[in-house]
Amino acid sequence: MQMETTQKLFKVGMTHRTDMQTLTPEQVNFEIDMCVGCDRCMRACPVPLSSQVNIADLNRATISNEVAPHVARFTDECVMCGSCVPVCPVDNHRDLLMLSLKQRLGIPWDGQVDLSRVASNIPQGWSLPLLMRNIREQSLFQNTQLVPDNYLLHFVATSQVQILQAGEELIREGEFGRDIFFILDGQCEVFSSGTDQADLPMAILRHGEYVGEQGMLTGQPRNITVRAQGQVAVLRVPEQVMQRLIEVVPAVEDFFVQLSNARAVERILSELELFEGVTAEDLHLLAKQAEMRRYERDGQLFSEDQKGRPVRESFHLLLDGFVKVARKTGRQEQPERVIAYRQRGDYFVGGLDMLGDQRAVTVSAITRVTVAEFSRAQLKNLLVKYPVFKQRLQQRLTLYQAAKTAAHSAVFEPLDQVELKQMAANLHSEVEARAGLHALVSDGVVEGTDVLVIDLDKCIHCNECEEACERRHGRSRMNREGMVVGNMSIVTACRQCQDPVCMLCSRAGIARKPSGEVYITESCIGCGICAERCPYDNISIVSLDDDNEAQPQSWQRFSRIFSKGFGKERGKQRQPLPMAQVATSGPLQFDDPIEDIRKKIAIKCDLCAGYNNQACVQACPTGAAIRVNPVSFFGSTEDILSLRGK
């Protein structure tokens, strides 16, 4: 089969390896010449179809138009995990060769559309032209040059049209979800919970509008409830399908990010006391002017020293993530002192910790952080228009000069001798509390939503929790020995992070239930990308060939990982998990026996999702093992810093 080359340089499925560089034609030829044809790379490849592809066919496709159909499909399915690289005896960059082939062949969305799948997605009483016309009413899809009909048809084929009746909820506040919804017909009400948990009406969404982008972009729980008013037709788009469109049309991501960030900024500003009295129109204008910055882990937002400190009237607003607030000590053995942690909704003015002691600080990202930055010029209109706002801001800046001196002299608080004696007498001093807090943050506990802890005063070290986990799941997904804070041991297992960086899978191999459990789906091929991205090493990759109980088909061994178990740990019969029931849950799903030839899978703690109990907790004979929400259990960061032993 001859395939035409494309001039578009796509990096489909490359969001986890954005630093890869394409090989030049000369480098491609050199790598192919070096290949010895041993097929080790294909044996190491986790993609099921790799068992049907040999390296000779792949090399031929890389440097010519002789591309067999199964090779073209394998090229699309390659997830760029890099498993092929370390096994090559001649140190070839097989991953870069695959990137080159992917870019040359283009994407399946350029090709023929399975119209039968599109037709099955058309609701009763609708036609394909009507469906396409309603989708084109979305501002995102109005430009046919940007999103041609062929892309849109593939988009529809891998999504789902839903018809909601009056009162049905599309999104519920507090639940997790990464699907995005485009309203095709009808209208929905938007609510948010007030302080008394009553629903507060916020807006009306009509056809041509969308909702759900906040969860898709940030992974955070939904911050609104959306309910149908009368009958409503929506296009429900899975995260993986949206990600494919973003890779094909990068402008789509810019569209979502800009609008979502502006909405988030406007909402947070309206809740801050500093901006009380500022009209909604002015807040809306200010939010549109904000400069958005994204910081990866350990990235520095600003510093308290002369070179790194922002200008006096600058304003930094945290939209999501955790940051570390510190001051430099000038001592070599301990160059900085962490004084607090801040998160979504907290802010800094002129580089001062406004929620603390209003002194200059150095701020660094603990997790992925999004920050809205406002310059003096952007705040100038508000300062002139709202004298009260100016007065509040000036009050928060009065300690600026004192802060500069304090920050460089390492003098932080006056020493109270009585308090020092009391602290020395207590078992849990402030130093210990701070150390415990730093450990909780650095090990990802505070950013989790559910952790397993063991009360060491009750634990008898019987190891029954681990053994129960293994009996239920076939392999233990936890290690009871973990970080110790006070008398509590925090078990080494997935904490179901608020913003799980592991959830970046083009095959929908990892998903999240609305209640927050992150679990491995039956689409997993064990490529290891999620395990590589987990900063706490709480995901493992296992080979199906390692299963000692021989069975005739590898797919049966794969299925056992999701179903085997016995004894009291089993609880009720395990219920199928949401995405495991959907045959077309992602853009790379095929009804093909080849997909059943699995080699590896990922395993992780998913809180026994699908069961009515958690094996580790149920099996503990002394009640030492419990599941807790880290913030509720350990307290907020400020609570921990103020701990005193009794």
Automatic annotation (TrEMBL):
GO terms assigned for molecular function: 4 iron, 4 sulfur cluster binding; metal ion binding
SUPFAM superfamilies: 4Fe-4S ferredoxins (SSF54862), cAMP-binding domain-like (SSF51206)
InterPro entries to which the protein is assigned, alphabetical: 4Fe4S_Fe-S-bd (IPR017896), 4Fe4S_Fe_S_CS (IPR017900), cNMP-bd_CS (IPR018488), cNMP-bd_dom (IPR000595), cNMP-bd_dom_sf (IPR018490), RmlC-like_jellyroll (IPR014710), RnfB_subfamily (IPR050294)
Domain Cyclic nucleotide-binding, chain residue ranges per copy: 140-246, 274-400
Residue ranges annotated for the 4Fe-4S ferredoxin-type domain, each copy included: 26-55, 69-91, 450-481, 516-544, 599-631
Highest taxon of the lineage: Bacteria
Organism expressing this protein natively: Dictyobacter alpinus
UniProt cross-references to Gene3D superfamilies, sorted A to Z: 3.30.70.20, Jelly Rolls
Keyword terms, alphabetized: 4Fe-4S, Electron transport, Iron, Iron-sulfur, Metal-binding, Transport
Keyword Electron transport: yes
SMART domains recorded: cNMP
Keyword DNA damage: no
Name of the protein in its database record: Cyclic nucleotide-binding protein
Pfam families linked to this entry: cNMP_binding, Fer4, Fer4_4, Fer4_9
